[in-house]
Amino acid sequence: MATTATQELQESFLSAIRRSQEITLQATKVWVETAGYFTPKVPYAHLPFASQLPRAHDVVASIFGFAEQMLASQRRFADDVLKVTSPLMPGDGPATPPEAGSRRLSKAAEPRPDEA
């Protein structure tokens, strides 16, 4: 079945990504240990404008939080497009013509209150 093949392909892809992440993380650990021998230890507080810089963890959290919001928005949009176009899809019954002169969007295509 196509769904099973798709799921297997997705899992294989995700597995390859996880493995490459593990390898990259191990290489980064070795690089940090090696670089530690050659780099001077400078206290963070002594760097110019250090107190004004965001923490790396905060930057990563912010970026991924934004990406999650974008992905959720795109998913809602895709779901709304499917709802609007479902009358044209096979197996969903005959398409019913819109009311004459009606230009109103279906409920699925209207902006959500939280997005306005």
Provide structural commentary.
The model is unreliable at 100-104 (pLDDT under 50). With 116 residues, the chain is mostly helical. The chain has 2 helices and no strands. 58% of the residues lie in helices and 0% in strands.
Task: From the structure above, extract its key features.
mainly alpha, 0% strand
Mean pLDDT level: 83
Low-confidence stretches: 100-104
- Morphology call: elongated
Query: What is the N-to-C succession of helices and strands?
Result: HH
Estimated radius of gyration? 25 Å
List the total number of helices.
2
Number of strands: 0
Structural class: mainly alpha
- Helix percent reads 55-70%
Largest sheet: none
State the end-to-end CA separation. 41 Å
Strand content: under 5%
Describe the structure in brief.
Helices cover 58% and strands 0% of the residues. The chain has 116 residues and is an all-alpha fold.
